[in-house]
Structure formats: structure tokens, C-alpha cells
Amino acid sequence: MATAQPAAGRSPGEQKFVGWGGEKCEIWESTKLIFGSYYFCFVQFSLFPPKRKRGITGDVANRREAIRKRERRVVETEEERSRRLSTMAQRGQDRRAEETEEQRNSRLSDMAQRGQERRAEETEEQRNRRLAVMGQRSQQRRAEEQRKENTFWGERNVYVSDNISKKNKLEAGI
Questions:
Q1: Cβ contacts of 75-82, under 8 Å, gap ≥ 24
Q2: pTM
């Protein structure tokens, strides 16, 4: 069994080491932690190098994957794009359908918080642009609603006028 014994005439930091085979060697305080030394690391990695991952890993791989996705989107057809967006929307709906009331409130709270932070950081110019876009969208929405309403009532008026003219023709015997 290996035992460390203080050698005669030496300080407590210096010891005589008796190994398994009874051989003796001296170990000084500075070399006690050989496993923590640069020398040990050098020898260990020289003899037993760490396994390297093959190919590209980490951020570079993620960046390349994102570039590939972007390139695919550039060449995708309108049908593929609508299918992809439809799938994404369906997944979002499924996820929201499964979430609890607490998760929903947390998600909405996070969204509101992010919006507030974004608005707090925006410049006056960005704010004016955002408000102008909001006003433009509101105007477009009102115009679309008005167009639908006019179309709806216009179709009704056509039917009424057609019926009146048919009735008049029948009465007149035409």
C-alpha cells in the first residue's frame, strides 16, 4: 500500500513517497497536484486527444441551415409557400388549443411586455412611421368593409330591380 511519510530533516511540505513496489521517490509541494498542471494536460491530450465532432457544428451549422432555408424560400412556388404558412398556422393553433389558461395569460403578458419594450426604445421617427402605417391599415379596412357593404346591397338592388322588371313585363304581357 502506498503511504506518504515525512522524511527526516525535511519540512512538512516535502515528503518521501513509498509506492506499491516499495520504490521511493521524493515529491515536492509544487508537484503534488500533477493532475492540475499544464504538463499533465499536455501529456493527457497528446496521448488521449478529445473526440472531435465530425462536420460543422454549433453556430456555423445553425447559420448554414438558416441560409439554406432562406434560399429554399426564394425559389418556392406560391403554392408551396401557402402550404408552408398554412402548416405553420395549424401548428400554432394546435399549440394554443392545448395550452392552459395560465399559459395563455403568460404568453399574452409576454407579448404585451415585448411590445411595450419595443415602443419604449423606438425613436420619434419610428413612432410616427408606425402610427402612419396603423392609420393607413385602418383606412384600408374601412374601405374594404364599405366595398363589401356596397356590393352586398348592390346585389340586392339588382335582384329587386330584376324582379320588378319581370313583374312589370308580366303585367304588361310582354
A1: none
A2: 0.31
Assigned domain for 157 exists: no
User: By three-state DSSP, how is residue 49 classified?
Assistant: coil
The percent of residues in the chain predicted with pLDDT above 90, rounded, is 24
Phi, psi (deg, nearest 5) at residue 21: -85, 5
User: DSSP readout, 106-173?
Assistant: HHHHHHHHHHHHHHHH--HHHHHHHHHHHHHHHHHHHHHHHHHHHHHHHHHHHHHHHHHHHHHHHHHT
- 55 occurs within a structural domain: no
What domain range is 80 assigned to? 60-121
Question: What's residue 49's pLDDT?
Answer: 66
Residue 28 has pLDDT above 80, yes or no: no
The per-residue pLDDT for 1 is 47
Q: Is residue 42 part of a domain?
A: no
Report yes or no on 91 lying in a domain. yes
Q: What is the mean pLDDT of residues 140-166?
A: 76
Do residues 5 and 15 lie in contact, with contact meaning Cβ atoms separated by under 8 Å?
A: yes
- Give the chain's domain count: 1
